């Protein structure tokens, strides 16, 4: 697909869908430090403010939501103008909130709102709880690869392993759970390569391991070659982007198309709808990391989204083993949180962090009283109760686990995760009649695309006890 054809397709999608209600799309950026994520955003912004062209008769542009948002992007552009250099690598996570607008012949229309997360390269790590939260909140992502280094530096490709694994892991999950998601592969610094087909062939050859994995997962992705040279015009340094904004336009357009007939669903919500309890999303990240120990997911910041423990799979699998981690600074962290709780026994964040640390050390029995306190503090939060129930199951306290699922069902009678897990306990206790009733209720409550999965769980668990 040529750049011209792609832009025409983008405009066509935008025109078809502009009447739908707007909702913010969260766009994740993945890439190593210095790959050019910030330059890419600045170049895209500049290009979409550059005026009409014959190729783009209905101008699209980003509009900042408020003066503070505008100041953030202007700060990047002013740095370039004042120093004659590209901006330095991002030092902390920064969010840029924009409205994508179209200027027609008679009026200006907002097509959608989107948030762009500009991340330091070292933050792009599935072990980082903040990054995990951004991944689960995303509707699509841009993965950045330094094209110049890929072609000319033999040591660069091995350094891409983490980026490749992350993108492939997200693609695999999206495919397995039928989630609507799109990925833009952006090859940066193409202006530093010779403008000849050989460069494209070299890029294609070297990135085949990633492309093969994306193709195998039937990923909705597109490749883009970004050239944003820094030039001096009338004595003023400035970026001169060519097609820089196309990846974002494609990504937003594609996401609007994918979510055209139903509410927009981020990655985390998609996983939850696939009958994954909060705890089981931890296993998802374990698969992403490819490690033997389970990472901590979404802990802290006042919210316990997921507890990083070994769990019995909702699909009826055997419990995963917990491998205690070697002592490190974990012990000092435990002491610090215990001291904090002595002075402030109800500190929610401290309880969350200490529970996760106990689980991380392979001590779920010590995490249970902490989780019980959290549930008592906020009994209306079902994810806390589901985590507590999984801890009870892990420590073979099935009556307590079942009573916890009962409390969840009193608050939400059609909670599919609680229904299925309670049914599995009933199967284990030999109560097939109650298990059948719970499985039937779970199947009725499940989304239409998951009803067959509930039936499979019921069939497999019941047949294993015959």
From TrEMBL:
GO process annotations (BP): receptor-mediated virion attachment to host cell
Keyword Lyase assigned: no
Cellular component GO terms, alphabetical: cell outer membrane
Chain ranges passing through the membrane: 294-315
InterPro entries registered for this protein in UniProt: P-loop_NTPase, TPR-like_helical_dom_sf, TPR_rpt, Ycf3
Origin: domain of life: Bacteria
Keywords of this entry: Membrane, Repeat, TPR repeat, Transmembrane, Transmembrane helix
Pfam families reported for this sequence: TPR_19
The protein, known as: Uncharacterized protein
Natural source organism: Chroococcidiopsis thermalis (strain PCC 7203)
Highest classification ranks of the organism: Bacteria, Bacillati, Cyanobacteriota, Cyanophyceae, Chroococcidiopsidales
């Amino acid at each position: 697909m040529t750049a011209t054809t792609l832009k025409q397709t983008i405009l066509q999608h935008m025109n078809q869908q502009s009447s739908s209600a707007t909702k913010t799309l969260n766009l994740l950026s993945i890439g190593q430090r210095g790959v050019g994520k910030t330059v890419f955003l600045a170049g895209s912004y500049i290009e979409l403010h550059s005026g009409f062209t014959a190729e783009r008769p209905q101008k699209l542009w980003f509009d900042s939501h408020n003066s503070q948002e505008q100041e953030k992007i202007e700060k990047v552009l002013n740095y370039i103008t004042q120093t004659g250099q590209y901006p330095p690598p991002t030092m902390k996570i920064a969010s840029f909130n924009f409205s994508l607008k179209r200027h027609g012949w008679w009026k200006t229309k907002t097509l959608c709102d989107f948030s762009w997360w500009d991340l330091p390269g070292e933050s792009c790590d599935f072990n980082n709880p903040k990054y995990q939260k951004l991944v689960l909140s995303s509707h699509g992502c841009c993965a950045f690869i330094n094209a110049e280094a890929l072609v000319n530096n033999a040591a660069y490709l091995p350094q891409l392993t983490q980026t490749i694994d992350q993108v492939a892991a997200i693609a695999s999950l999206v495919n397995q759970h039928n989630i609507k998601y799109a990925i833009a592969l952006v090859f940066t610094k193409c202006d530093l390569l010779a403008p000849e087909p050989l460069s494209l062939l070299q890029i294609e050859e070297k990135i085949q391991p990633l492309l093969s994995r994306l193709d195998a997962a039937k990923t909705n992705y597109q490749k883009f070659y970004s050239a944003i040279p820094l030039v001096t015009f009338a004595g003023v340094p400035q970026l001169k982007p060519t097609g820089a904004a196309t990846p974002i336009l494609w990504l937003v357009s594609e996401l609007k198309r994918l979510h055209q007939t139903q509410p927009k669903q981020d990655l985390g919500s998609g996983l939850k709808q696939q009958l994954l309890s909060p705890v089981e999303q931890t296993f998802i990240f374990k698969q992403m990391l490819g490690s033997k120990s389970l990472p901590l997911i979404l802990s802290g910041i006042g919210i316990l989204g997921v507890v990083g423990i070994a769990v019995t799979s909702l699909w009826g699998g055997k419990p995963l083993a917990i491998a205690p981690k070697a002592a490190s600074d974990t012990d000092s962290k435990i002491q610090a949180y215990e001291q904090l709780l002595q002075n402030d026994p109800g500190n929610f964040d401290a309880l969350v962090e200490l529970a996760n640390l106990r689980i991380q050390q392979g001590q779920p029995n010590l995490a249970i009283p902490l989780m019980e306190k959290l549930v008592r503090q906020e009994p209306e939060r079902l994810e806390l109760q589901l985590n507590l129930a999984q801890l009870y199951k892990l420590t073979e306290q099935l009556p307590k686990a079942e009573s916890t699922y009962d409390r969840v069902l009193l608050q939400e009678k059609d909670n599919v995760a609680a229904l299925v897990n309670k049914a599995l306990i009933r199967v284990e206790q030999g109560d097939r009649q109650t298990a059948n009733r719970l499985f039937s209720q779970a199947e009725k409550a499940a989304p239409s695309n998951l009803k067959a999965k509930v039936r499979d769980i019921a069939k497999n668990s019941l047949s294993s006890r015959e």
